[in-house]
Amino acid sequence: IIATARNPTSSTDLQELSKTYPGVHIVTLDVESQQSISSALEEVQSIVGNNGLNCLINNAAIGFSMDINAITPEAMMKTFQVNSVTPLFVTKAFLPLLQTAAAQSTGMGIHRAAVINISSILGSITCNWGEAANLKSYAYRTSKAALNMVTRCLAADLGSDGILCMSLHPGWVKTDMGGPQAPLTVEESVSGMLSVLSHLTDKDHGGFKDYRGDNLPW
């Protein structure tokens, strides 16, 4: 397992995990810096060697809760950059490692090679109606909708290489971004997502699921 952080020295929880589990490697990565992405790629390459990378999870995200009166061009562009653009270019950078892993197996799933984009049901255009539309988060919602399109584009491009691509909604989780009022603990969300990931097949390629394994509408 290779975990990334912009500043690993200040990520105390991550440091504790790496001490407890020797198989956890921590790599510095600022997804907004192409130089940082390139440096991270080199470090990951040295860790995985000729085995390649079996699963890339694009998890970095930011969120601004702004309605029509508060939203700004700067907030929109910043959110799109982090939530929609950087997952594409991180995937592009790590594609050779994914292709190396994919060439060594058959079928589709994380046992071979996969790109998992952590999305959100708030990015579902279908679901943004009625009571569900009360959260007026223009930047976050539209950036996650765009990320879902990135997922579909990647799925169309990488399927022939045997690389599964999908969007995954982790639920509303008690994190720094989700807040204390969220109904799910980190453990509940992660255990659900791990179960989903472990059962992925070619039927899930290009799909959009939640942490319970339910298919979500685009």
Automatic annotation (TrEMBL):
One Pfam family matching this protein: adh_short
GO molecular function terms noted in the UniProt entry: oxidoreductase activity
GO CC annotations, alphabetized: cytoplasm
CDD domains, per the entry: carb_red_sniffer_like_SDR_c (cd05325)
Protein name from the UniProt record: C-factor
UniProt xrefs under InterPro entries: Fungal_SecMetab_SDRs, NAD(P)-bd_dom_sf, SDR_fam
Gene3D superfamilies reported for this sequence: NAD(P)-binding Rossmann-like Domain
Family: Belongs to the short-chain dehydrogenases/reductases (SDR) family.
Organism: Lates calcarifer (Barramundi)
